[in-house]
Amino acid sequence: MSITSTTRTTYAAEMAHVTKSYGNVVVLEDLSYSFPSNEIVLVEGESGSGKSTLLRLLQGIEVPDYGNISLLGHPIPPSRSKHYGHLLRQVGIVFQDPLLDNNLTVTENATAIARINGRWNEDKVDDLDLLSFIFHAFEIERFADQPVHQLSGGQKLRVALARALMSHPRWLLLDEPTHMVDPAGKVGIYKQLKGLLDETNLGGVIVSHDLEARVVANKIVTIESGRIV
User: Fold this and answer.
1) How far apart are CA 73 and CA 65, in angstroms?
2) What is residue 65's three-state secondary structure?
3) pTM
4) pLDDT tens digit string along 114-127?
5) How many CB atoms lie within 10 A of CB 139?
6) 3.40.140.20, 3.40.50.300, 3.40.50.1980, 1.25.40.10: CATH of 11-228
């Protein structure tokens, strides 16, 4: 099952000599790293080490004090231009909060971004097959018509992951995706995610404290003193 192709760029994102401070606190300092298109990079580090800041920089939510960042082969501009919005729509993002609409069903939530981007047609066999494939992998197909407020935290996370994958992304950015899930639930979610990623050859960045996340990673890096080591 093909979600999308990520083979057009060797590196999905590159950070060159990036420094980011908040007031007098330097969070990232002269950080340089290239993220491969088809590998999952797990970023670890202590709380406050700059892991989430790194993701916000890649999303364009934060702007570096110094240095350059590119995403999918294009420089990230200092402000959100129309072009960058189009670029960001090619990235599947999962925040710490799943940010689901409690008034919508699981299917409506999972297809919301794809629908906005013109990538979902409920009458199209390929779209339905992809939804079925992802729902089956995350074991949420039986909840398809239920409103999300009836789901557990782990089930909501699976819906958020399904929504990111249904958007046909070229790359993924996952910020502490299982921080509200119990240890047993984390193991199951990461195993399911690994199965999907192995099937689709999709790469990305996961920021997490969880040792369970290592099962998904092709590479594990640590942020120390504002730099990746």
Assistant:
1) 21
2) coil
3) 0.91
4) 999 999 999 999 99
5) 13
6) 3.40.50.300
